[in-house]
């Protein structure tokens, strides 16, 4: 005996919203988390100098940020590097990605010689796409 109820499936069941809401929520979490990680490098304790033409340009994809602290240490991706390590990193960067942009962020209390030293290391590695980070007045 067949006790199953025979219902015709002619009615349209519609679009299931629960899985779609779950996917949208997970995508939202992913993008919020990735945005936080993208901003961590620029939130290091570096007080940038101000300039009349200083503005926040659009960050380029894959841009390498070199922070120069007041004691002259170069910090890339949260790691303190000496000149030899920075040179090796820049050499590898030029070898893999020629023309890769490098953003130099120096504290306003950093001695000029430290900035020039890091800039010289970049130049020795043949990095030519270097920009300097500044703030607009009143920022």
Query: Which CATH architecture of the domain at 46-132 would you pick?
Result: 2-Layer Sandwich
CATH class of the domain at 46-132: Alpha Beta
Helix-strand sequence: HEEEHEHE
Number of helices: 3
Report, as a whole number of angstroms, the end-to-end distance: 81 Å
Provide the CATH topology of the domain at 46-132.
Nucleotidyltransferase, domain 5
Oligomer: single chain
Radius of gyration: 25 Å
Strand order of the largest sheet: 3-2-1-4-5
- In the predicted model, the low-confidence regions spanning at least 5 consecutive residues are none
The percentage helix is: 25-40%
Averaged pLDDT: 81
- Roughly what fraction of the amino acids lie in strands? 5-15%
**Largest sheet geometry:** 5 strands, mixed
Total DSSP E strands: 5
What is the 3D shape? elongated
Task: Characterize the structure shown.
This protein has a domain at 46-132: Nucleotidyltransferase, domain 5. 37% of the residues lie in helices and 14% in strands. The relative contact order is 0.17. The chain contains three helices and five strands; from the N terminus they run αβββαβαβ. The protein starts with 16 loop residues before the first helix and ends in a 7-residue tail after the last strand. Strands 3-2-1-4-5 form a five-stranded mixed β-sheet. The chain is an alpha/beta fold and 139 residues long.
């Amino acid at each position: 005996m067949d006790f199953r109820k025979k219902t015709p499936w002619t009615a349209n069941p519609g679009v299931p919203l629960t899985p779609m809401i779950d996917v949208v929520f997970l995508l939202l979490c992913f993008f919020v988390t990735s945005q936080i990680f993208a901003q961590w490098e620029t939130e290091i304790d570096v007080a940038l100098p101000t300039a009349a033409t200083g503005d926040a340009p659009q960050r380029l994809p894959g841009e390498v940020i070199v922070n120069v602290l007041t004691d002259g240490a170069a910090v890339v991706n949260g790691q303190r590097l000496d000149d030899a390590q920075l040179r090796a990193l820049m050499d590898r960067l030029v070898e893999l990605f020629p023309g890769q942009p490098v953003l130099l962020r120096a504290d306003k209390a950093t001695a000029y010689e430290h900035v020039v030293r890091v800039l010289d290391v970049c130049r020795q590695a043949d990095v030519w796409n270097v920009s300097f980070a500044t703030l607009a007045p009143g920022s």
